[in-house]
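Long-time lurker, finally posting.

We've been working with TraR/DksA family transcriptional regulator (Biostraticola tofi) and I want a structural starting point before designing mutants. I don't trust myself to interpret raw outputs, so I'm hoping someone here can both generate the structure tokens and explain anything notable. Sequence follows.
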Amino acid sequence: MTVKHLPAEADLLAMPDDDYMNAEQLTFFKLRLESERQRVLLHLDELKGEISRSDASGDEADKAMREEDLRMLFRQIDRESRLLPKIDAALLRIKTGRYGYCIETDEPIGLPRLLLRPTAERSIDAKMTQEQREPMYRKA
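Top reply, 14 upvotes:
Generated this for you. Predicted structure of TraR/DksA family transcriptional regulator:
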């Protein structure tokens, strides 16, 4: 059985526009997202292990330091936990043939953006428009 070599990022970027989201590119992003998903799950397990090993003994300064460490661990867990559904959604878009296309405009998101943020759902223009609208909703 022959294992096909996956292209490097530079090779993806050098592909013609007509090849956008071809099988090779989709496989590249699928493997990247699956790898990131596994990394996140392992990191969450490590963080939860650190919390469970937290020692409650010590003086007031030790307790204050431990509380700050726990706050930081919980923030990391929250951040990683929010990433998992985004990864799963991107994998589903690959499966359904919608990966790489903006969920608002159906325009290509673009390889450079996807290489930086494989979970991207919007083109840069659509994302900027969304971010400009968000402050209006927060003020209301």
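Before you design anything, note these points.
Helices lie at 9-14, 23-52, 60-96, 111-116, 124-139.
Residues 20-139 form a domain with the Four Helix Bundle (Hemerythrin (Met), subunit A) fold (CATH 1.20.120.910).
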